């Protein structure tokens, strides 16, 4: 097994040299071939998925995880639609992002190039296999995939079809390699392939990401958790605030950009909290509050210290009454996960101060945190949402899957 | 000692929150105060430096390293000049690098913000202490410095003066912390402070950098070695090629952008190599060649296999006769360190192919590799030269010491 991970990483590195110089036309032809292969083999994909679902049932996998694992004809078509969307996006490779002519006549351009060999580590959703491969290939990167064990049969089938497509257009199979060992030793081995991999992008639980950051000698772009806040300022439009917190908490509670915390200025707490929390409770949300909140909201339970830094990913919200804007900013910077945080206010100065001082990947004034997303931000695609500060922060699209190089044109210049 | 590293990293993180929101005016006032403190205390700096030099003499430190360690009044003035140059540079923080208005009315801006808490690990030169601190502070970052043990007294004195300057302008001392323990355990401890440090930037030997990459749980921006190539194509202007290889090899052989390899197209080798190598030999350069080179160049010795991947940092060059452009590109991508590589050619098509296919931080046509440098590239400053692909590649200036955040203005938008 160990030998196999090493060999696959090497194969990806070698194939990356071919992709590095492949034209946009060639890469789009490949994505089209992937679409054809998948659409031409829906029954066999569903059959492989059925195997995974049977194993999941036997293992007693939770309903949520089983749903993530499940493919249907419609979901396969959505997956293929995603690839078609990526085909339409402009190729970032070769784009000159900066250009300067120096006094000595040197023309210096900064040009986007592929990262090279990308490792993706993800959990249960099999659509990530196709999605991540398509994004990496379009941006000229070869990719080593390592999906969750629950989806192993589905993933193997999808990768076989992608590799058939590589063959169809005459690109090496190493452009997409898949680690079919499901034990954690294989991940550990993958994390030591710094001779071959340029970056590893983990998508999954905080625990998985922590494991990867601790053990990887390959640079990591972490997609961490979202402990997102909505702060309702004293001057907020309270109806707007109610809509925003309801949307941020309830519309899709299982995702990283859902709100987990509600902070409310003390001067409007007695007016705002009862009505906002009533609506949240009607939608099934459990309210955990500080003492001030408990005095205002029926049925709220006392929040524990650890609740303030927790990502619930569920219909739970922790609510705190706050003295002023400064305390709100401090609370968010201290307990938050630096993902997405919003203020609701009619005071422009307060809004600007919040935007400036809250140190998160995305900061909002008067909008739901749920917009932190590659599609919503207009990137046209998304490989994930980075919560670290290096290389890419926030939603990552095709450009974030590239590096740059300096391209210098001279006429014989030498250094004095 | 362990406790001390941890406490200093925490102190830097806390101070970074203050710097994050400090105005350009405040930061420039700080840099001016640093200039004043240093200029006002030259004798005590030289005294501290004298201690280090005495210890170096007693330990039998090499001439090169002793020279790097040595401060003089003139060198201190140059150091201060560097800080004055940084004051004049525009503050990258707050700059909007991208802006989009979405169909739903959301205004999304991508804005430069400080990285936060930066760790710098460097070796003998004490000027790096002031230089790195000034660059980090100007870009709004607090910094944890760990310099080489040889310069410990000089560094401590310089840091004391910087911290006096912080006090003068009313910024917390944690903006610049210095690890005064000289053992490697302190570095190891620093590399585990991912709770506090946002990035570690190592500058030094390949061995040091490898140690850091292997052991760090903090993201690293590696400043690796430069095994740089000059390839002389069949259509090259041979006089130009001679000037370029002479400059790239001889002008400053101890730096990472100096050429270590000369590749020559076989059709011009017999004309070019004798004259180019004669001149190199006259400058004291040792020629290590393949068999074809040995037949053409008097006094050349046979290159070993390992020579092709070696960074000599000395008056040594390895020379190889190459069949064609494709082989040259393959050789460079295989044996090079992806730092800086040049082609000399009059054939535009060959030049463009080389620029496109050589996967290095800087690629040149008809110019010396010695230009890979923050000042030569017009960045106005340089914290180092990154040889990795994530975040920053090539010379790193102030902008490369920043991250971004998405700043979103809404009017009550919620996700559908």
Structure description:
The structure is a homodimer of 416-residue chains. Chain A folds into two domains: 2-224 and 388-409, 3-Layer(aba) Sandwich (Aldehyde Dehydrogenase, Chain A, domain 1), CATH 3.40.605; 228-371, Aldehyde Dehydrogenase, Chain A, domain 2, CATH 3.40.309. In chain A, 44% of the residues lie in helices and 20% in strands. The first copy, chain A, contains 14 helices and 16 strands. Chain A has helices at 2-20, 24-40, 42-59, 63-69, 73-88, 127-138, 152-169, 184-190, 206-215, 238-250, 266-282, 291-296, 325-335, 348-357, and strands spanning 96-101, 107-114, 117-121, 142-146, 176-178, 199-202, 228-232, 259-265, 286-289, 301-302, 316-322, 340-344, 362-367, 384-386, 394-396, 402-413. In chain A, the strands form four sheets. Chain A has a seven-stranded parallel beta sheet with strand order 10-9-11-8-7-12-13, sandwiched between helices. Chain A has a four-stranded parallel beta sheet with strand order 5-4-3-6, with helices on both faces. In chain A, β9, α12 and β10 form a beta-alpha-beta unit. In chain A, α1 packs across α8. The termini of chain A are far apart. β16 (402-413) of chain A pairs parallel with β13 (362-367) of chain B.
